[in-house]
């Protein structure tokens, strides 16, 4: 990717990246990722192809940036400010809020890009990596033999399993109910 996520940028660059990101999300809600072209993205946001290629190598690069932006919207910086024992609950609550706030967009994207499509799989993998990183830095230090990063991956995958069930499989569930499911899966596996 030509743009490095997290780097400081001017307003013009921020506007440009936001326009490309928004265009990609709108197009994902209308058609399959594989059928979206760079020309369509540029036409949708009214930028020339040259501007697109100033920021991204290709549409896959742009979708990576879109996932980065969604992850950033979870406000995971809150995890570092809370006691480490609350990291999992904080990550889950913030992810649930994001998925809930973006439910319409998720439904439109999944309507054109099924749950088992490469696009959704790519998103879920990105999200798992992000949560694993946050959890491995925000969880209390363990004295057991299992490496912390493995424990963090287990928690991240379980969080994502509950979120997928609620939002991508469209089961009406409150945050409190979802927290209960998560807790039961983590403490009393079947």
Automatic annotation (TrEMBL):
Domain of life: Bacteria
DNA-binding region(s), chain positions: 37-56
Keyword field contains Secreted: no
A Pfam cross-reference name: TetR_N
Entry keyword set: DNA-binding
HTH tetR-type domain: residues covered: 14-74
Protein name: TetR/AcrR family transcriptional regulator
SUPFAM superfamilies with a match to the protein in the record: Homeodomain-like
């Amino acid at each position: 990717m030509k743009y490095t996520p997290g780097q400081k940028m001017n307003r013009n660059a921020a506007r440009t990246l936001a326009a490309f990101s928004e265009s990609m999300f709108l197009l994902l809600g209308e058609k399959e990722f594989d059928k979206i072209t760079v020309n369509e993205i540029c036409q949708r946001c009214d930028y020339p192809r040259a501007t697109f290629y100033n920021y991204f190598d290709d549409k896959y690069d742009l979708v990576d940036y879109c996932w980065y932006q969604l992850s950033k919207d979870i406000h995971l910086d809150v995890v570092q400010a809370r006691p480490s024992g609350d990291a999992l609950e904080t990550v889950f609550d913030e992810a649930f809020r994001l998925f809930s706030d973006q439910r319409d967009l998720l439904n439109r994207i999944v309507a054109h890009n099924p749950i088992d499509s490469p696009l959704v799989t790519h998103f879920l993998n990105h999200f798992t990596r992000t949560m694993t990183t946050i959890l491995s830095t925000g969880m209390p230090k363990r004295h057991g033999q299992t490496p912390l990063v493995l424990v963090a991956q287990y928690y991240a995958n379980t969080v994502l399993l509950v979120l997928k069930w609620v939002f991508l499989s469209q089961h009406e569930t409150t945050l409190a109910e979802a927290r209960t499911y998560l807790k039961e899966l983590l403490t009393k596996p079947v």
